Amino acid sequence: MSQAAKSEPQYEAQQLASKQASAPSKALLAFFLFIIIAIAVAFLPSFNENLVQEAVDINAAGANASDSPSEYGTILDTLQYGRSIHILAMLLVGFGFLMAFIRKHGYSSITATFLAVSVAIPSYMLIKSFGGEGFAMPTVDIKTFLFAEFAAASLLIAMGAPLGRLRMDQYLLMGLLFIPAYIFNEWLILESGYFKGFFDTGGSVVIHAFVAYFGIGVIANTIHKFENDPICENDSTSNQFCLLGSMILWLFWPSFTSAIVTPDKVVLTAINTVFALCGSTLATYIFSTIIRGKVEIEDIANAALAGGVAIGSLCDMTTPGYAMLIGIGAGTLSTVGYSILSVKLEKVIKGTDTCGINNLHGMPGILGGLTAIFVAGTPGIQIIGIITTVAIAFVAGRVTGFVISLFGKKAVAYSDKDEFVTEHSA
After folding, report:
1. Which of the listed residues 50, 137, 206, 361 has the most CB atoms within 10 Å of its CB?
2. 152-169 residue pLDDT tens
3. Residue 400 belongs to some domain of the structure
């Protein structure tokens, strides 16, 4: 974001004049339409054998239902449904407004959020509806839906790295390529049995670290493509929307970490998460003030959430005191990342991390994974799992970045003007 830039009006005039060359082709949009129709058709029982038995079981359960209180499983499903709605609020409202900090990119940020969620949830649930034991998950099941929401959250985080420099169709393409890579890593680390004893209940590593380094892979060696583009700008209004998104994420983060824990650990997990967020929020304020002299909104809107990232691995196993210490460490690390390390990372990877996902999700995610070593019976497995996740993420991100680059670049970086109607008559 520190590159020299042409004057904005001159730049936009030149780029808008050639936007037809970089706009998504009708053939590409037709391809996406075909893909989403194919996804919908693949959920029909006649095309998906796994759904046939599920439909029979659901109908049988409905026929045997009575007016008596629901069974334990149904009660648990209902409770998890409530948390799934909280997570949807995080996805659409929290992440949407958090990424609306770019001054002239609000329509694009929020629309990209809509598109990412809309492609991620069905894609994840479709892929997981196939396969054998140890991989496939029932489609009409609240736990599968929650895992699909985790995948959607992961995609949104990864999009934060190239935010403002991709077109809407390129975000869709990124989503279609991201979900299989995410599912593969999730299966390898959590389900395959190769990493038995790996702790990551709330996704510090499998969600946050994975998506951070996937996003870093996408943007690596791309800085030369945008060296003459305008810089990423924000203002008071866009920053307030960003803060609103951050507060919504803060509010519902306990539902995110406790979504799949056993009922007896829900309260512990929620309290640990809140304590971790309190720790990171307070540490962010202190270190932002110490380092910068005044509080930077970028820090308080992002690094304040780092406690929620880092507590994921131990969210249902530690105590509030340790959770707060983890949050303090994560908030400190994230603030240092935003204030000092971001510029250094940009030079190393030769790419601009728009949202600073390495600072909020990458480093705190790894920190969270490492804290689990103190309770894990197999610290070697924990470390190898973290390294494996980062390696898979970066390689998959590089491949995805290369494929995206084949479809051109956004005509006007950090702006809505090339893809949205921004002026309306009274």
Report:
1. 361
2. 999 999 999 999 999 999
3. yes
**From CA 253, how far away is CA 250, in angstroms rounded?**
5
Q: What are the CB-based long-range contacts (under 8 Å, 24+) for 22-27?
A: 22/167, 22/408, 22/409, 22/410, 22/411, 22/418, 23/167, 23/411, 23/418, 23/419, 24/167, 24/168, 24/169, 24/407
**392 part of a folded domain:** yes
With cut-offs at 50, 70 and 90, classify the pLDDT of residue 45: confident
CA angle at residue 384 from 381 to 385, to 5 degrees?
80
Torsion sign over Cα 268, 270, 276, 278: negative
| Number of compact structural domains in the chain | 1
Q: How far is CA 22 from CA 58, 266, 310, 406, in A?
A: 48, 49, 40, 11
pLDDT above 90 for 376: no
Is residue 46 a part of any domain in this protein?
no
Domain that holds residue 191: 76-405
Instruction: Quote the pTM value.
Output: 0.91
The rounded distance, in Å, linking the Cα atoms of 9 and 179 is: 38
pLDDT digits (tens, 9 = 90+) for 227-277: 878 889 999 999 999 999 999 999 999 999 999 999 999 999 999 999 999
CATH (domain of 353): 1.10.3430.10
CA distance 357 to 158: 7
Query: Do residues 327 and 365 lie in contact, with contact meaning Cβ atoms separated by under 8 Å?
Result: no
Residue 244 lies in a domain: yes
What backbone phi and psi angles, to 5 degrees, belong to 23? -70, 155
